[in-house]
Write a structure and sequence with these properties.
heterodimer, A: alpha/beta, three-stranded mixed β-sheet, B: alpha/beta, six-stranded parallel β-sheet, 16 helices, 12 strands, globular
Amino acid sequence: MSIVTVQLGQCGNQIGQELFNVISNDTHSSCGQCPKTENEAYSVCSQERFFSEGRNGAVSARAVLVDMEPKVISHAISTAAKSGRWKYGDQSSFCQKQGSGNNWANGFCVHGPRHEEDIMDLIRREVEKCDRLGGFFNMMSMAGGTGSGMGTYITQCLRGTYPHSFILNQVTWPYGTGEVIVQNYNSVLTLSHLYQSSDAILVHENDTVHKICAQLMNIKQISFKDVNKVIAHQLGSVLQPAYTEGASEYNRNPLGDLMKSMVCHPEYKLLGLRNIPQMSEASLAYSVFTWPGLLKHLRQMLIANAKMEEGVDWQVRPPADGLPLAEKGTRNRRFNTSLANLLILRGKDVQSADTGGFMDPALYTSWLPPGVASSTWRTPMSFNRYEKSATLVSNSQFLLKPLDGIVGKAWNMFASRAYVHQYTQFGISEEDFLDSFTALEQIIASYTHL
Amino acid sequence: MTQSVVVQVGQCGNQVGSRFWDLALREHASVNKKGIYDEALSSFFRNVDTRRSDEDNNDISGGKIRSLKARAVLIDMEEGVVNEILQGPLRDVFDSKQLITDVSGSGNNWAVGHKVYGSTYRDEIVENLRKAAEHCDCLQCFFVIHSMGGGTGSGLGTSVLNVLEDEFPEVCRIVTSVYPSAEDDVITSPYNSVLAMRELTEHADCVLPIENQSLVDIVNKIKHMSHSGKLGAEIKQSSTIISGQGGIKGQEKPFDAMNNIVANMLLNLTSSARFEGSLNMDLNEITMNLVPFPRLHYLVSSLSPLYTLADVNVPSRRLDQMFSDAFSKDHQLIHADPKHNLYLACALIVRGDVQVSDLRRNIERLKPSLPFVSWNQEGWKTGLCSVPPVGHSHSLLALANNTCVKSTFIELKDRFMKLYKKKAHLHHYLHVDGMEQSCFTEAVSSLSSLIEEYNQLDATKGLLMTDAQRLNIAV
């Protein structure tokens, strides 16, 4: 089954291009430790999922590029063509001359409806090339105008046109110290609207990835390209083929399987991602990891709500079993309760990895049995030159604090009605703002009481 | 890429405007070595084949530069200044059809400029603007340059602003207004300025006020540096922001030094829209991020550095010094001290080879000393353009929406009231058709309420604002 990727706005297009790069490189590098049949099955599955073959054998990504101004898209297309291995389709991009001016209302109310027909047409053509459609993967940021505003509108249109398809949104959260003054408004409007049309929202925070680049990968002058490469690596580790439990063939329906494991309740759609190990190319050659070590680290990162593998607080422990209900309310605040967890393990000796630690009922909320809440996918193929790689997709309280921060700042600004006239002039009223705030407070409350 | 049209009105507007075009050509000449008409040039210039006789259809879109024509409309009610431009070295950049002139001038009377000439020339102005807009693929912004103290720039300029709002409501209007100093030689300048202020508050998207006194101070400061001590010998004369060297113009005229500063400010403002960079900042993003309330759209600008030293080696301490300077009161283009007032929002447009990490580092460093309003503690908008200005390796333009502008307005109101109480010179205005006493009272009350809005924001400064109470959800 194939996934159609929709890259929206500057951020979506930049990360999307890196993602296809990672996937293409990974698929073409053969894994020395696996039999040839394994290599072939992996590569065929990945190829079908992300690329289509043209008449002359040219490999094109199953992607649609959308932006309101031309510079980023043309850069992405030319960089892809230079790789020699894959490129973007000739008719797969849509752009205009003038951007959205960091204004969500402009993207959602003006540019979205105005260009809906053309964009949906491009997407439909990409869908028709698929033998079987596995779903949509929309990549965007939350802070700007096009990715956030128009991206939300397009997601809504997709939901209307393809009511039975899975839609996974990858959303990049901006730096806390701000690149755009109205980023909190744009974020609030984006998340509240996406919750209604998207199946799940996979989140990356710029601050976190920046720290990974600085501390783990030792990059001195960090550029957006470095940040995007890390995000692409993490996304690739989720989307590349793997075996679900007990399966003998690579999973044909990754988005469906993901939704089934992770999103059991429509109120809980925010997914966080942790991937270890993460290090600079230079250090890769000298490092050796074991599965027990990796899994223990990942489990503690989950419990202590750590963003990366350094600085994990090992003091935090899950509540002891058998505590009476009344006391559970006062349990350690720093402990991160999960709704569902998905482990994706790639690399040597993966069958020996013991994921029992993640089945501990203490990790999970009381109303979901751990047997259902925790799942594992595996593949013996190594990913992106890491001999062993473990990824955790988690529907838990990971994102509670950052979300609360964003809503708090936006609410403060809204209390003085600053900048609101910029939105009302394009069609988003104060009522709409209040509805969005209410929706997000609801989500925050639900996650707090997990 | 988008295009912008410059509308220069009155003597001051046209003089500043001609410096702008001269310096713009200088800047593009130093960047565009191959003589190809590219997107950057097209944002302010048309490429025209002058051999073709059909002047409406002779635009060439790509390829080599043939003849550049500025996307501008020049308006003046007396011919002296515009004629001088047309006879000077910039004559080829302007088309005779882009001019609107009259003979007798406005007599330093806002009413004559706004009511009389405003209605007489309205159709011609609309026609001219429409033609300029048609030559643009995607028109993003109108830049209006004028002064507040006179008659034409002030009166007719604000009438043009009204026309722009009526005819092109979707296009952003950024106005550069030169405010009169206290020792202005035009006695009625307070009347003209206050009457014009009301129009600016209501019809402009964004205003960049400039005060002559501040420009004079900056010019003096640079001349002092040039002539003093050993540092003086090392300043690269062509790199000062008051210099027009390297441009087409031959001799420097008296106001040229001051006008060059304003021209440089406009060039830096539009640099990110013209040239590429790692973090582009379009003009509509400026209005979006810096204007939290529709009437409070007055932005204080400051440029740094004022000059470069001949010493090529620039350690990062000098880079940090550039950021600090932009916030000092000596570099502001109006007489104000933003550090001791309240910031509503701030934008930094950096040109040249500065990285994101340098930018972030300096913001972190300066933030504690700059008071921001409680609901916008992290109110920074940043833009990085990779092309530096001529003669510099990097430069910074800071635009701040800060309550310090109110001191300029309060002074203006005081000078207005001094004259108005005595009804001095009022008859010159009331004689004009369409002008009534109510125009004055309404204008001054608009100014008063603007000052009051800034006062209210100032009152919140330093108070520990508790976070607004969040919505309560029933669980």
